[in-house]
Records
---
Amino acid sequence: MATGRTHRPATRSRGIPEATVARLPLYLRALTALSERSVPTVSSEELATAAGVNSAKLRKDFSYLGSYGTRGVGYDVEYLVYQISRELGLTQDWPVVIVGIGNLGAALANYGGFASRGFRVAALIDADPAQTGKLVAGLPVRHTDELEEIVERNQVSIGVIATPAGAAQEVCDRLVAAGVTSILNFAPTVLSVPDGVDVRKVDLSIELQILAFHEQRKAGEDLGEAVARGTLPKAAEEAADRPGPDGDVPAVMPA
Ligand SMILES: NC(=O)c1ccc[n+]([C@@H]2O[C@H](COP(=O)([O-])OP(=O)(O)OC[C@H]3O[C@@H](n4cnc5c(N)ncnc54)[C@H](O)[C@@H]3O)[C@@H](O)[C@H]2O)c1
């Protein structure tokens, strides 16, 4: 679901391309599901289908990890889970702070999937004094005055920003100055960060806009096919012939 980009070169220092790194979590999710069902081995085709990736791409990705599978047997599921987890840095615990504990921040704090993937929510921080001390997901909300101390004491390197857009840059600057080097930004704004700090942006409305674009295309194709088959309902046919607001384009455009 995460969109956006990191401020890093396309290839990481260990020679794994950024596009491969972006697919590793997809493999890991599929492999974890297999592991939970005690499936011992998996072919590249099966795993590629489960991860929604092309199998040739998967084999290429795994070659960067030095994992080639065994002909006729496939890949060892447990070993690959370990290998990918290690590559993603998930074999260690990552303390995370969430800043902005409104609707979204509270929902993120309550999401159990972070802890099970090695991300421990170390603290919840909000600027509203009325929020301070409230328990959210079992953690007391702390005031932003304590941000630097919390980050330093917990050695937090990952910060999640769920504040309004107008506050996000200032929060980001404070997190970075305190030692955070990776930011997951939910606020609808572009953040400036110094070199060496990774920012990933999550924006569900952008994802919805992309789906809306495809829906519109599909609707256009359906209409075009109906016109070609001569099965266009009468009302739609009239609409397709009617001039649009400019007077020269039909209100409903066939593909
Ligand atoms: N990326 C996405 O897909 C997505 C989805 C929903 C919301 N959002 C964005 O997430 C943000 C939060 O949305 P919400 O619905 O939870 O809003 P909200 O108003 O419920 O919560 C915002 C919280 O941030 C706190 N805050 C304000 N300024 C702060 C600061 N300087 N430091 C720390 N905390 C501060 C407020 O006190 C409040 O508790 C918004 O920017 C919204 O646009 C993004």
---
Amino acid sequence: MDTKEYKRIFGIVLDSVGTGAAPDANKFDDVGSDTLGHVGEAYEGRLALPNLQKMGLSNLRGKAILGVPKVEIPIGYYGVMQEISAGKDSMDGHWEMMGLPVSKPLDTFPNGFPSELIKKIETFSDRKIIGNRPESGTKIIAELGEHQMETGDLIVYTSGDSVLQIAAHEDVIPLKELYKICEYARSLVNGPTYTIGRVITRPYVGPDKDHFTRTANRHDFTLAPIGQTDLDYLKSAQVHTIGIGKINDIFSGQGIDVGFHNESNMDGMDHVDKVMQEDFTGFCFINLVDFDAMYGHRRNPIGFGQALMDFDKRLGTVLKNLKDDDLLILTADHGNDPGFKGTDHTREQVPLLAYSPSMKSNGSLGIRKTFADFGATVLDNFNVSGNAVGTSFLKELMNTEEIK
Ligand SMILES: O=P(O)(O)O[C@H]1O[C@H](CO)[C@@H](O)[C@H]1O
Ligand SMILES: [Mn+2]
Ligand SMILES: [Mn+2]
């Protein structure tokens, strides 16, 4: 393989860490959302993110995050990316990053799923379905979990996203059975009648409604990518591809040589540290989902900020361990503003931070018109051609003028 520039690229997606309403936020009723901004405000100046800060996390914004002033000389390149996909879910965001924007909106079910679909799942599983409406996952298990423990019924719910989620107590409906039911549900919603982005298993444990907690046995059964993604192109060109966290699920394993499941953000960063010790030429794509699942959807800005600070510490180690021919890219797949109404994702611009110890220059990458610029840069680096969506910013990163 002909390596053009960096030997290894690490791309970390901080799931749901948006940086202000996107220009089309009005179409999503998300005007005024700003995940990072509102987390900073909730901390009243006590949010400390020294590593993200020196990469330019506030420099990429108009108004700095409270507690995280802009720095005079960021260590690398910073900017924002805008989304062109029709939806604002993880699948839309990640597929677009990898050169496959989702232009046709996927089906959503603000009034619950049609009875025809529900009946099929009931027949297959031989269990009754309860819930069947958009709801927060923790709320619906608090409400219906005890009933489920008595009856063995299945809790089915959705959100503003194209998702069919099935929650079940691990002691009542064994995991193996739950995965089978979800796999079956997946087979019903691959189009053309219903096209749903993700069927998600939501297992939980606990003795009663005040003590239910969801487990890391969550599994996302995602629609298989409708076409080739940059990961497929890389893999076909023998560039090694590694997925950490939800990445494997989001791409249905397509284009990924090795996948690791994360128990948590910190477990994800353990995987990153390990992979960084390996010698390979390729792309490691990482998703850290706790920001989203534990704090964004729960509208908990304090928890969100703590998760950012915990990540920032681990980022310090990554920055130290990066080699001259490594490139690190940080971004997000959508917003999920914990200071905003509702419990859904928010249509936001996402941060774009790029750093390599070998960088000779620094500066702004501006406003990228699509998330696909990320994947286009990875392809450009490894001399691989793809769907020709997105514009590479590799040249900017390789600028040889000294840092001012
Ligand atoms: O409320 P919980 O169960 O966390 O569900 C959320 O998680 C889904 C996937 O991110 C979103 O669509 C939203 O429904
Ligand atoms: Mn996401
Ligand atoms: Mn989410």
